[in-house]
Design goal:
two-stranded antiparallel ribbon; single chain; mainly beta
Length: 54
Amino acid sequence: MSIRSDSPVVSTSNKQEKKKTICGACGHELEPDHPGIQCVQGHHFCTECSANIV
């Protein structure tokens, strides 16, 4: 058995690509400045789902 050491490395370091913000409850994509809440663990919630969080 042999192991290839010349395998290609793919990098996606596009600075313009931003990480999408997703609602932790319903999964909808949120705007970066959404009016919902963010919990202390860093989860984002849309305004509709934020109403159900105590």
